[in-house]
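Retro notes - structure team

What went well: the batch runner handled both jobs without manual restarts.
What didn't: labels got mixed up in the shared folder, which is why I'm recording both outputs here explicitly, each with its sequence directly above its tokens.

Job 1
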Amino acid sequence: MSVLDAPIGQALPPLVKPPIELSQLRRYAEASGDYNPIHLDEEVARRVGLDGIIAHGMLSMAFLGQFISQQIEDSPEARVEHLKVRFTSMVRLGDVLTCHGIIKDRVSRDSYESTTVECWAQNQKGEKVTVGEAVLVVPRAEHKERS
């Protein structure tokens, strides 16, 4: 069953990411241009009051983006209209993040249907580190036939 057809309240198959490693944070810093030393240097992170290096918040958002995009990869006309998140806890080296989602709402308009997904990434302790909402849209069949 496609996420676009799943009933409200349906849980989506989770996406489990490998443990966060320093080499991954270095690659992310290179890709994003975010070289803040709290993400790369243990000594600096401790000096500012952290208990060690923390991952970039946008990395966990990227994982959620991957998770949401995978939900529609079998539906070429569907797209992610928006993804909004809030960072609720720090991600540390060694954390294993799992992305989850539940179908929250579905709305039909003249030309499209939208599906709202409540989503979150949680660590291996079950703590939600990033929470959000995504809206997926797909043109309605009647509209596609008129086009």
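Job 2
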Amino acid sequence: MESTEVPPRPAYRVRPFRPAWWLPGRHAQTVGGKLLRPSPAVELRRTRLETPDGDFLDLDVGPAPREGAPVVLVLHGLEGSARRPYMLLTYRELLDRGLRPVGLNFRSCSGEPNRTARFYHSGDTADVRLVLDHLAQSFPGTPLGAIGFSLGGNVLLKHLGEAGADTGALRAAVAISVPYDLSAGCRELDHGFMSRVYSEYFMRNLRRKALAKAHLLGEFCDLEAVRRARTLREFDDAVTSRLHGFRDAEDYYRQSSSGPFLERIRVPTLLLHAEDDPFLPPHAIPRDAIRANPWLVPGITAAGGHVGFITGATPWSVRFWAEEEAARFLAAHLEEATET
């Protein structure tokens, strides 16, 4: 259904992305994004939030650049953490624009195993709701924003769609390199040498974490199937779906993909995505849903890879377009919210 509401329109326009000529192609942008991003020094304070099911979430809270600064929750991707270079670079961009960053470490991602059998997954919005409520209580009257990368972006968009107009203090959001259709994304990662390299990179950590909790997972999962898993789909069949109430991997993907939730989003949301993203085929980008919802601001580029978006004339003048655009968009919306 097309929205009849009119979203706020502060002075923001997506700037063109000009990919670095010396990083041609989607894999060069993707791998370059991992290898070339700096890790700027940001003072972070680790705080622990207890969850209703007896587990915990670790938050990395950045400094306040000024009194009453808007707060931005930042969500990492699959098997990332709140202290990965793209997260630290995002915090620095936010701070430079007067916004206070808070990074969420999904369960098992803060450097300490979580207490329960469950992990985190692409459609798990309950923890994000819990953290946003916690931030609203911790910073009363302060506008909130949010940024999600990849899996974190999928979780964020699904949360926004579930919430509709009832997002509380959350006034604007950005989602970067989102796998809008999880099944299509997994099929894409099943083909080609580089796709298998990406899958195995994730699988090493996922298998290790699951087997380290074998004493908790044994009653839910076939541990031999966990050991045999070589693709994300196999792991999701053996672990993710079994632990989180889904019938199988395909049921998990169907219920957790963010694409079907886009039409119900009612906060200004910037979507940054490259058509050559190796984690999602271009036909799976939900263009019609994006066009139909005026609350969504598309930043769809021809190139950029997956969380790449590297620009600059030389490797010595490199810049990271997605982090810059995310901070610009949120600053425009949250500063306006602060003044009203």
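One thing worth noting from job 2: Residues 76 and 87 are 7 Å apart (CA to CA).
We'll revisit the folder naming next retro.
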